[in-house]
Design goal:
2 domains; Peroxisomal Thiolase, Chain A, domain 1; alpha/beta; single chain
Length: about 325
């Protein structure tokens, strides 16, 4: 068994050029800035161009992460893309990213766990690294959610946006056994009995269509607050770390009220929470890496600090990760 630590060696993000404010959206949908902000905290979202595929968004975020890590495409052994909006039913979006980056033959595949997808992908990459199978992994959350929103359903279409966030995870030898770096613990779970509350109403083997996003907001809100909070409790317990030692809470950006409720339940100061939902809206699997990259590039998140990621999404699937950045 390898003794390598799985550290975040680089982060990157990409948002499409088209930033659509609530006021812009109100010209298209029966809604208003006040209605959207009061219910979600969202002020704008980015929408991809018609000719921008999910792999295009992912590739641009990946280049930024590679640059920050000081690595070249040839250094990458593993690519995992978390997405529910793949370029094609098959092959994976990851192989298109591999091609566009110029990464040599290696492991590349997608993960589908909706808003929790990035955490599922991180956990998988962590296992590849700590077992010594790969040295550098590129983990990307990328979504073009605008392609399957029902623009007649104002309760859901106003909540989502497009974008991609990426991290490079690298296996490095421990500097000290007393203060481990990188991923300290992870936790994942799901409950298919709750799938009906957040899902697509289509699929290749059922309707032969992509379908549209359907959501029971009240139920999702209730389960999100409970399970995201529990996931943080679980991961800190696994790492034997007090949640009061957490420097930054980087949650899935679904709803500002969910984020605030979780912070309160966890007894975390809101000043320790990274919030980007006002600018990005809900970008599903891309939201945590987008928020992480924003926190790092804005100078808030610093090396050595303790971060906790947590999310809940369609499935319902949820999870968390505790990381010493």
């Amino acid at each position: 068994m390898s003794t390598l630590e799985t550290v975040i060696s680089g982060t990157g993000s990409y948002l499409p050029e088209n930033a659509v404010t609530n006021h812009d959206l109100a010209k298209r949908v029966d809604t208003s800035d006040e209605w959207i902000r009061s219910r979600s905290g969202i002020g704008q979202r980015h929408l991809a161009a018609e000719d921008e595929a999910c792999s295009d968004l992912a590739t641009k975020a990946a280049w930024n992460a590679l640059d920050q890590a000081g690595l070249k495409p040839r250094d990458i052994d593993l690519i995992i893309v978390a997405t529910v909006t793949p370029d094609r039913t098959f092959p994976s979006t990851a192989v298109y990213v591999q091609e566009k980056l110029g990464v040599p033959p290696g492991i590349a595949f997608d993960v589908s766990a909706a808003c929790a997808g990035f955490l599922y992908a991180v956990n998988i990459a962590h296992d590849f690294i700590r077992t010594g199978q790969v040295k550098h992994a590129l983990v990307i959350g990328a979504e073009k959610l605008s392609c399957f929103l029902d623009w007649e359903d104002r309760a859901t279409c106003v909540l989502f946006g497009d974008g991609a966030g990426a991290v490079v995870l690298s296996g490095e030898a421990p500097l000290t056994a007393r203060r481990p770096r990188g991923i300290l613990a992870t936790y994942l779970s799901s409950d298919g009995r709750l799938a009906k509350h957040l899902c697509s109403d289509g699929g290749p083997s059922t309707t032969g269509t992509v379908g549209k996003v359907r959501m029971n907001g009240k139920e999702v809100f209730r389960h999100a607050v409970e399970q995201i909070s529990n996931a943080v409790f679980e991961v800190t317990e696994r790492a034997k770390v007090s949640r009061h030692e957490i420097d930054w809470f980087v949650p899935h950006q679904a709803n500002i009220r969910i984020i605030q409720s979780c912070a309160k339940k966890l007894e975390l100061d809101e000043g320790k929470v990274i919030v980007t939902i006002d600018k990005h809206a809900n970008t599903s699997s891309a939201s945590i890496p987008l928020a992480l990259d924003a926190g790092i590039r804005e100078g808030r998140i610093k090396r050595g600090e303790l971060l906790v990621f947590a999310a809940l999404g369609g499935g319902l699937a949820w999870g968390s990760a505790l990381v010493r950045y």
